Amino acid sequence: MFRSRFLRSFPLRAARSGFAAVGLTGAVGAASLAAPMQVAESARPPAPVRGEEIAFLSLPRLHKKAVVREGVSPRILESGVGHYPSTQLPGQTGNAVLFGHRTVGAKPFADLDRLRRGDVIDVRSGAHRYRYRVRSLRVITPDRTDVLNPTPLRGGDRRTGSYLTLVTCTPRYSNARRLVAIATLDGR
Prior knowledge:
Helix content: 10-25%
CATH superfamily of the domain at 52-147 and 158-187: Sortase
Strand order of the largest sheet: 1-2-3-4-7-8-6-5
Structural class: alpha+beta
């Protein structure tokens, strides 16, 4: 079963940060009643470390599976799929953006242009499984950074759903444009 160091180490990281101790000790009173709120606000998992495995991606139509690592350095993309660090993690509200090559290294997105509206994209992160459905494929210029926005290809920081955006170069053997597949978390 897939388990990354990031996912396995969450309880240890939480204990080191004092997360696990909040609300467990101390005097009863107003100060201890506020502790549960602090726990809830800080219950977010720690950010993954560059290069560590954070998920496993499956593209059934393309018969492709790949490990997703944190970061988009040349070394990470040579070996597979990279998660753009400032974007959400899969399953969270907002936009999880994944990059991969079409013609270099492991070529996880070699046939990304064969995806169609409604196709399934599965992401497994630890014990969690997320199913996304492709909503659109677009070709954009490399300077379009709005693909990283919480709602992809739209202005602003407003999160309007849970998105998974796959990005690769197009046409094949060129980096003139970007092929973008935008999927939404399937609520079924």
